[in-house]
């Protein structure tokens, strides 16, 4: 079974963030790109990851922070760019699919494989930026510190 088949067979409701991180860690970029080419599976994985972001949010770390973060997952082939936004305000985190008219404080753009490696704790955001695997527009310092606001799983 390929890594993409493994993810496709997952019952996301019963998988902990740590288990998901372990599965992503075992996957090659080829496996992740296979997920990205399957539009329905890609949409399901992205929705699950972003859906869990609110639960992984650490309000005590955010304090009075107010910020809008735009995520652009660049996609490939027929599955183009996916855009999600994370709004942090008043000690809460709200995630929405799509681009709003609001101006984000920071925009992070990356491919599917890099996104999954980043959000599963399998890649360092600073290393990814230095290697140009993630492009940052706006407040680079905010982007560098984003991980402190979320409970990132460890694989």
Model description:
The structure is a single chain. The protein is built from eight helices and five strands. Helix 3 packs across helix 6. The protein has a single domain, classed as Nonspecific Lipid-transfer Protein, Chain A. It is globular, with a radius of gyration of 15 Å. With 155 residues, it is of the alpha+beta class. This is SCP2 sterol-binding domain-containing protein. It comes from Streptomyces beihaiensis. InterPro entries: SCP2_sterol-bd_dom (IPR003033), SCP2_sterol-bd_dom_sf (IPR036527). It holds the Pfam family SCP2.
Shape: globular
Question: How would you sum up the major sheet?
Answer: 5 strands, mixed
Proportion of helical residues: 40-55%
Counting H and I runs of at least 4 residues, what is the number of helices? 8
Going by CATH, the homologous superfamily would be SCP2 sterol-binding domain
Order of strands across the main sheet: 3-2-1-4-5
**Beta strands, count:** 5
Number of domains: 1
- Give me the strand/helix succession: HHHHHEEEEHHEH
What is the fold named in CATH at topology level? Answer: Nonspecific Lipid-transfer Protein, Chain A
Instruction: State the end-to-end distance.
Output: 20 Å
Pfam family, one: SCP2
Organism: Streptomyces beihaiensis
Protein name: SCP2 sterol-binding domain-containing protein
Domain SCP2: 59-150
């Amino acid at each position: 079974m390929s890594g993409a088949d493994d993810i496709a067979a997952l019952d996301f409701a019963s998988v902990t963030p740590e288990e998901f991180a372990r599965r992503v860690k075992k996957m090659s970029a080829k496996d992740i790109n296979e997920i990205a080419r399957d539009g329905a599976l890609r949409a399901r994985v992205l929705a699950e990851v972003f859906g869990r972001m609110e639960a992984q949010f650490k309000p005590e770390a955010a304090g009075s922070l107010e910020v809008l973060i735009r995520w652009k997952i660049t996609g490939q082939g027929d599955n183009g760019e996916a855009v999600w936004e994370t709004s942090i305000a008043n000690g809460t985190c709200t995630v929405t699919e799509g681009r709003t008219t609001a101006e984000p404080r920071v925009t992070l753009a990356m491919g599917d494989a890099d996104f999954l490696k980043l959000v599963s704790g399998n890649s360092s955001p600073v290393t990814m930026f230095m290697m140009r695997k993630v492009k940052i527009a706006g407040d680079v310092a905010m982007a560098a510190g984003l991980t402190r606001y979320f409970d990132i799983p460890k694989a």
